[in-house]
Write a structure and sequence with these properties.
Layout: H1 8-32, E1 54-58, H2 66-74, H3 80-86, E2 100-104, H4 116-121, H5 125-139, H6 145-152
Antiparallel strand pairs: 1-2
Helix pairs in contact: 2-3, 5-6
């Protein structure tokens, strides 16, 4: 008698492998799913007391920085250090759209969402330095054209 097909153990192993693959994919889907249903993370910074409540800001624009967020919500961009301490999981220079930033309510001056115009009206540090370099080049009348060009490209 000729045997046709796979042995029973091979069939079970293939079914088990497929089941494991699908269960792994399902877990990955829930892992990467939006965190809207997940438990909210509370800040662990040392700068505020344990009883401090927080206002949650969600980064919506690509040029947002901690100093801009601090300036809008607290009135002083110097408060970016407090925000950095209260949000230790964030890299202050690498904010991405969707990041949540917790702002101590005792520092809040406004709860209005930061508008796009506020973000894009503010000049970046690079733009300010480049403008200063150009102004220095035009103020020093004895600079040659080549030196003016060098001043424009001093700042990376």
């Amino acid at each position: 008698m000729r045997y046709s097909g796979w042995p029973a153990t091979s069939k079970w192993l293939v079914c088990l492998a497929i089941l494991l693959i699908f269960s792994g994919c399902a877990q990955m889907k829930t892992f990467f799913k939006s965190d809207s249903n997940s438990a909210e993370v509370k800040p662990a910074g040392k700068s505020t007391s344990k009883n401090t409540s927080y206002y949650e800001h969600k980064v919506r624009w690509e040029r947002e920085t901690l100093s801009l967020i601090a300036k809008w919500y607290t009135g002083s961009q110097k408060n970016w250090k407090v925000l950095a301490k209260d949000n230790p999981w964030l890299e202050p220079n690498e904010l991405s759209i969707g990041h949540k930033i917790f702002i101590p309510r005792n520092l809040l001056k406004t709860k209005k969402p930061m508008p796009r115009d506020f973000v894009f009206a503010s000049k970046s540090k690079h733009e300010v330095q480049k403008t200063k370099a150009k102004q220095a080049g035009t103020a020093g009348g004895s600079l040659s054209e080549s030196k003016k060009v060098e001043l424009e490209y001093v700042v990376p």
